[in-house]
Amino acid sequence: MFLKLFVAFLIVLLSIASEISEPLGKTKDNDSFDVKVFGYPSWDNRIISSVNATLVKKNVTKVLQGIKSVENNKLLLLTYLENNNQTKDYLAIIQYTKNGNEWNMKFFNIPEDCENLDGSEKNGVTKFNDTDYDCNLGGIELK
């Protein structure tokens, strides 16, 4: 008896699942896409210290990812799930201390400063499209 109920339940679930045309989590009205900004920062540890980065939306000054500590010669990755497809203008900001007391900032306009702006594949990274928004900043030298 229990086996018959289980098989019937399984058949119903499979028939419902076969009618789903969109992937789970995505609907036609859902224009969200992933924003990923990445690069490899490097600096002279004797001159540069306290390096942090953040991602903000241009003209809104909304912080998308909180301040993140950055390591020398390690991958910097800033991510955000954009809920609509209206704005694709972002600003990656790297803040650091120079010579122990001089505070500096380096700005990257996204997508203008991305190495992969042309849309061609480079190093196997997906380029700008409606589902993902990947920006390769390449090597970032802090002076």
Fraction of residues in helix:
10-25%
Q: Which fold name fills CATH's third level, the topology?
A: Immunoglobulin-like
How many structural domains? 1
Could you spell the SSE succession in H and E letters? HEEEEEEE
The geometry reads as: elongated
Q: Please state the average pLDDT score.
A: 75
If strands are numbered along the chain, what order do they take across the biggest sheet? 3-2-5-6
Straight-line N-to-C gap: 74 Å
Protein name: Salivary secreted protein
Signal peptide: 1-17
Keywords: Signal
Question: What does this protein structure show overall?
Answer:
The chain has about 140 residues and is mainly β. The chain has one domain (about 30-140): Immunoglobulin-like, CATH 2.60.40. It has one helix and seven strands. A four-stranded antiparallel beta sheet has the order 3-2-5-6, with no helix packed on it. A three-stranded mixed beta sheet has the order 4-1-7, with no helix packed on it. A hairpin with a 4-residue loop joins strand 2 and strand 3 (about 60-70). The N and C termini lie far apart (about 75 Å).
How would you describe this structure in keywords?
143 residues; mainly beta; Immunoglobulin-like; four-stranded antiparallel β-sheet; three-stranded mixed β-sheet; 1 helix; 44% strand; signal; Salivary secreted protein
